[in-house]
Amino acid sequence: MPALASIRPSAHLADVRYEIRGALTRRARELEAAGRPIIKLNIGNPGRYGFETPAHLREAIAAHLRDSEAYGHEQGLDQAREAIAAQQRARGARHVEVERIFVGNGVSELIDLSLRALLQPGDEVLLPSPDYPLWSAATILNGGVPRYYRCLAENGHLPDPDEIEALVTPRTRALVLINPNNPTGAVYPRALLERIVAVASRHGLLLLSDEIYDEVLYDGTPFQPLAEVAGELPCVSFGGLSKVYRACGYRVGWLSLSGAPAAGADYRDALQLLAALRLCANVTAQWAVPAALQGAPTIQALTAPGGRLHEARRTVLEGVAASDYLDVVAPAGALYAFPQVRADRIAAFDDEAFALRLLEEESVLVVPGSSFNVPASRHLRLTLLPQPADLAEVFVRMERVLARLAAERPQRAVAVA
After folding, report:
1. Overall pTM > 0.90
2. pLDDT tens digit string along 269-283?
3. How far apart are CA 185 and CA 18, in angstroms?
4. Does residue 149 share a domain with residue 166?
């Protein structure tokens, strides 16, 4: 029998990365299988860290199991879309109606659909660096070209609208914002959003705003929805149940198209075609949407002082403050911190090599910052979901590895005055 030829994967995948669940995670599983306990700080999956979905969401699903056995409307259940439209209008989004709402199997699916409906081969999409890597992957897999605008730590991880505008070319089609940001925790103030909207308006760009962490906020930081600032300019806003409602496994996300209906009509129809091709989103879990958006909020008890997320964030900030090697911009929102290793303490630093060493030597799993499309990264992303005591232990272990690394390269380190 002749040898079977190997199956060649698509060339599109050559530039696609998703290290949040990549090689480091596979190595962590091997170590766990060998009996070593691993402290995992790599994923934003609340249910894996003991957080529970609010009971009224579960009850809404249970009450409608018999109503969930047929395919639903390709855009989502009417009741779910009505609740989403009402939320968006209450936030100041213009011209948001049920027919401009799409429910998907998580925001992840809708990111892909939103770009597939928009891009021609070679079209460019402006993305933040760091970004959530699915945005880069979906751009590439749909024939687009990512162009990155920097969100530097020295600027509080906020972008510079002038830099964004300098990246615009005749092939630029869309401008993506992730707010509150994953991985940095930055939350964009209104004045900044107004300048970004002005850039999009001058160049005819579609605004795509990933707002999945919209209510995960700390220390009284306000959240400004982009759609309200965009006004008549077409804007796609993304939200869902995964983070605010700790229901990742339900796989329910949504997108809302706002702005002048005539300008977005063809795009809306393209989205509907793509939604119909995948038949419909998970029907059962959509019954939780009205309960979530119309019920009493629950995330604030976790993000307020004394709440578990607030205390986890405090533990991270204290761990960085006590470190000889780290600094961080305090996250104002979302479920992550993005500390970096100081160049004045360890000059030569490889974030991927360090993350692997931290895993092998100290049984801690983190995600290197380069996984979020940051060139020459000195950053690491840590989730705030573990118990505060576990996070405190992480910084003890991380400091040990950093001290060993600094001792191995004394000629490269610069003493602090």
Report:
1. yes
2. 999 999 999 999 999
3. 19
4. yes
